[in-house]
Write a structure and sequence with these properties.
mainly alpha, 5 helices
Length: 124
């Protein structure tokens, strides 16, 4: 018993492989690996998440202060200014722009937002 591949699924796989070979995706993957493999960046990410989580908990209980918010914002700014993190965020933005253009190319003949509408169940 052989499993027949749907031609559209095959085109989808081909598209995914083609996207993975774009300069935008390659730059993103490289920048992501650099961030994941840098202990200093990882420590800064953990510190930021901890501060943000503390702030969110304080906000839920009504005890969040402006000073705490500024501390979270400062930690995020410091994290984003780290060279490897900045490169990662730039690469992510470039990839998202490329994916948006690809989504528009797919969506135009369908008259729907392929990336948004096609995957959703119920939209108001």
């Amino acid at each position: 018993m052989s499993v027949q591949t749907d031609p559209l699924e095959e085109l989808g796989r081909d598209l995914g492989e083609a996207i993975a070979e774009t300069p935008e995706y390659e730059a993103f993957a490289d920048a992501k690996a650099a961030v994941e493999n840098d202990d200093d960046v990882q420590a800064q990410i953990s510190a930021f998440h901890e501060l943000r989580d503390q702030y969110m908990q304080a906000r839920q209980t009504g005890s969040a202060s402006e000073a705490a918010l500024r501390e979270v914002q400062s930690a995020q700014k410091e994290l984003h200014e780290m060279p490897k993190m900045a490169a990662y965020l730039d690469a992510q933005d470039e990839l998202q722009e490329r994916l948006k253009a690809i989504n528009e190319a797919i969506s135009d003949p369908l008259a729907i937002d392929f990336g948004g509408e096609a995957g959703g169940c119920c939209h108001d």
